[in-house]
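Let's practice the habit of predicting before peeking. Look at the sequence and jot down your guess about where helices and strands might fall. Then scroll down.
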Amino acid sequence: MQPEQLRYPIGHCNYPTEYTADMLRNRLLEIETFPKRLELAVQHLDEYQLQTAYRPEGWTVNQVIHHCADSHMNAVLRIKMALTEDNPSIKPYQEALWAETADYQLPYNNSITLLFCIHEKLIRILRSLNEEELNRTYYHSQYERSFSIKDVICLYAWHGNHHLAHITSLKNRMNW
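Done guessing? Here is the structure:
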């Protein structure tokens, strides 16, 4: 596999120019089911497998799981800011440095449990929104652009699938 394919096994996130109700419904279902799909993908991995990087110079499976919890926690906070403030600027964070913090050494089930809780909040919020609320935005200084909540739905559906593909493609390559 090429390095780019290892890094982006499902490609980059593509934001549509127009969001349909069916498209949003499907993305919400992907977000809702992500914790369970992730749990099923990793539940039989042993410690060696959990400490294996999905690509050279990439994160271990355990780090990927902890990253998903951190990232999706940030999503909830960013969405709530977008709903309660006028195009707020959100703070980026150093994902690679976060992956080196002590909590990333915890067993993965800590973050799986957290993901189930985060996604329950996330889905409750997202499914409650009307069209006007779905179009509310936040500004991300790292990308120098505003993202609508519809864009965030697209991003986090992709994000979960992206990291799940890191794990499942590793499992396939290693015949686990």
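How did you do? The longest strand covers residues 137-140.
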